[in-house]
């Protein structure tokens, strides 16, 4: 059975809450892999809001080393939530990582996961083409990553207004 | 039976036309609750286009007092179209209303509606994160409102290219 | 039988690859109607990537005269891919064509197509309202075109993360 679920949605679409409910439903110990980094007060507020919902979760901070964090969960039978891939990708771009290679490593770890894992990401490609070249590049990387994760996942849900559209599984 | 239908979609997705057809299908007298305010010529053109389609409708202007407008419809057995929530929210922000409190009052009125009501709104959270802090705040409020309305509604339809995706009901 | 399929999706959503697979599945000779024009290096890179996937296809360049290109395919029993409508619309706007009239002519040709045709386009209306008036106008034209094509098509698929949501047919 494929253990990977991909939850995709817009800003404030309720995707994190939806993903948390999927994790809760497993009945397994809950691990939250956080990719967010607080660069400013606005980001800190968003992070605090998420944390306040997640009492009873073990938290692993993985702004960059997401594959390592997931790999560390092998053999433990926890249910693992990754929130979210777009922030991880932002961090990779800022730190000038090799993006295709980071994607390749992540996919390898997902393929061999022996526990449920739910990955959350923001759909960002449905607005007007950004004027900013960096934003266009970010959008392209994000779209490619989403296609790769969706191809690997057993279940893919698109969330709008808190409600899921089942894309796969 | 839940009388509330939520119609969500992008710009020029055909969501208003779709919502109007839902109202027409009830066979009841038609009321159009308009939240738009004409600040400029472009907006005036959009408003005129919508109005020309709506002969045979009673119109109530409610750029801010949407809950009052809906409350006034109790006991009348009209079918009520609210178009649209994103403009209402824009007006609330410009007038510096207390947003969470306005949402709370609106939800209360919807919960006790004794007539069909169709609410139209724009999905705005599926593009790149806006650089403008006000736009990010607007996007967050919109997303939260959509989740609340969708949770309350009996039917939720997402419109793309004039065609509905049924999210609920 | 309606021969027209409309494939709508975000940036890097996998919509072109998906559309190509629909064409391959017909087993007919493959024609690629390209609307892209290389104005800069970034665009040239995108075009080259698409071309490298399309060996074994006949290519017709139609940055503006899309209806003529489609009309030229009558009676040939080829499977025709148009990629993409948003670039065609961009070219029309730059060349100051009469947009409603160009849409009308395109729809007429689609209505009488005697071969499979798959049209690809970008959904661009699900982000924050653009500050730029030209971008708003582009978004409006795009939305109207999508509604018209979707109404004409026998099949409409919305693509996210490489996966289709069936809107029609």
Query: What is the C-alpha radius of gyration of chain A, as a whole number of Å?
Result: 15 Å
Globular, elongated, flat, extended or rod-shaped: what is the shape of chain A? globular
Strand content of chain A: 15-25%
User: Biggest sheet of chain A, strands in spatial order?
Assistant: 3-2-4-5-1-6-7
Attribute tags:
6 helices, homotrimer, alpha/beta, 7-stranded mixed sheet, 22% strand, 169 residues
Compact description:
Three copies of one chain form a homotrimer. Chain A has six helices and seven strands. The termini of chain A are close together.
Q: How does this structure look, described?
A:
3 copies of one chain form a homotrimer. With 169 residues, chain A is α/β, with parallel strands linked by helices. Helices cover 43% and strands 22% of the residues of chain A. Chain A is built from 6 helices and 7 strands, in the order E-H-E-H-E-H-E-H-H-E-H-E-E. Chain A has a 7-stranded mixed sheet, with helices on both faces. The longest helix of chain A has 20 residues, at 133-152. Chain A is globular. The model of chain A has no long low-confidence stretch (mean pLDDT 94).
């Amino acid at each position: 059975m494929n253990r990977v679920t991909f939850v995709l949605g817009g800003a404030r679409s309720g995707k994190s809450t939806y993903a948390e409910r999927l994790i809760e439903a497993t009945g397994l110990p809950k691990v939250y892999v956080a990719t967010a980094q607080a660069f400013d007060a606005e980001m800190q507020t968003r992070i605090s809001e998420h944390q306040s919902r997640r009492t009873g979760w073990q938290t692993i901070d993985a702004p960059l080393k997401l594959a390592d964090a997931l790999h560390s969960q092998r053999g433990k039978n926890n249910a693992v939530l990754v929130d979210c891939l777009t922030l991880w990708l932002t961090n990779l771009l800022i730190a000038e990582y090799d993006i295709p290679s980071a994607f390749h490593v992540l996919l390898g770890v997902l393929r061999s996961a022996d526990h449920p894992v739910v990955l959350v990401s923001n759909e960002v490609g449905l607005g007007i083409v950004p004027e900013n070249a960096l934003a266009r590049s970010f959008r392209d990387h994000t779209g490619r990553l989403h296609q790769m994760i969706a191809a690997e996942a057993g279940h893919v849900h698109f969330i709008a207004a808190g409600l899921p559209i089942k894309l796969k599984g």
